Amino acid sequence: MKTAEISDLQKEYLMPTYAPGIALVKGLGSSVWDAEGNEYLDFVSGIAVTNIGHSHPALVQAVQDQVETLVHVSNLYYNEKQPQLAQALAEHSGLPGAKCFFCNSGAEANEGLIKLVRLWGSDQGKYEIITMQQSFHGRTLATLTATGQEKVKTGFGPLPEGFVHANFNDLQSIKEAITPKTAAVLVEALQGEGGVIPADPEFMSGLRTLCDEQGILLLCDEVQTGMGRTGKWFGFQNYGVQPDAFSLAKGLGNGFPIGAIVAGETLANTFQVGHHATTFGGTPLACAAALAVIKVVEEEALLENTLQKGACLVDGLCEIAVKHKSWISEVRGLGLLLGLVLDVSALPLQKKLQEKGLLALATAGNVLRLLPPLNVSQEEIDQALALIGEACEELEMKQVRA
Length: 402
Ligand SMILES: *Cc1c(COP(=O)(O)O)cnc(C)c1O
Fold this sequence. Notes:
Elements: H1 3-13, E1 24-28, E2 31-34, E3 39-42, H2 45-48, H3 57-69, H4 81-93, E4 99-103, H5 106-121, E5 128-132, H6 141-146, E6 163-166, H7 171-177, E7 182-187, E8 190-191, E9 197-198, H8 201-214, E10 217-221, E11 245-248, E12 259-263, H9 284-299, H10 302-323, E13 328-334, E14 337-342, H11 347-356, E15 358-359, E16 361-363, E17 367-370, H12 378-401
Parallel strand pairs: 3-15, 5-6, 5-7, 7-10, 10-11
Antiparallel strand pairs: 1-2, 2-3, 4-12, 8-9, 11-12, 13-14, 14-17, 16-17
Helix pairs in contact: 3-9, 4-9, 10-12, 11-12
């Protein structure tokens, strides 16, 4: 099928919740191909999902083997892959006494985290969760209420109670939002959808101290920042701060849908039999995929590669930003979750890059978000920088002429 045909079929049969432009039919490593056979360098990675690239042979093999052995059993039975995956995540988290719960998406992981915290606080009458302005936590009713962006809430009321917003990187505003009903603060170590904004180190450490003083929980949404994206297994590890629990999804299965809650000792045994469940959570197949992802990140030293290639990308982007300082203001981010911050809309740049064969993502209006796979090569980084440089030249010429 060609793009026009796919697009017509989609318009007829799919709810118009998305507005795609190109149709992708194949992926390999850092590249994807559209229905017309054009190749693109994929610096979106399904928004921090395909962290080890497309069709990684070790992942393909693990999924194939597991499909032939056992795809699904109910959680009424043990399956050996689930505790193995939980052990790997608990160990990499560094949280003492950590335990996991598996589900299927980021929103579902956060929804579970919210339930976990409410159950923990229920006998003290604590249920409020403080979340940040510009945050993003998902599209279910509770998680869109937690999200600090009005645009995702409009028209969906009545919304669940118990969510309060404060300002990101502003400890004073968190202090002011605390009440006797506060159970937890939920924060992203780096706001992805919010515009690639990293937390300040003093904010993260101050938050931990504040939560301890007040007897409330610190939760991290690691759905986008987790699984090596920032150069550490989890974003909070950049700050030397440990949350009481965190959520995962996106990169965990490299495209195989799986989400998780990882909770330290305070919350590890709060859910008991019957408190929470989901049919597809932690199937042998999903866990085999995630175990393969973790093995690849370890064996191919992808945390190191993320830091090294991230630093190269930042250097190159800074050079471009200096050249175009009349309309590019900043480069920011962690690891391979980077943003080129413009003084204008990032959409024309995203569009121009796509025409040139580089997929990147305009975010929060004026930020071009770059999320290459964690095993991206130096050559691919150089190629992307050349394309971004060219696109910026052309856009500037157009601005000058206009
Ligand atoms: C994508 C994202 C979510 C939602 O994940 P879904 O799998 O789309 O439900 C939640 N939190 C953050 C930080 C995200 O980036």
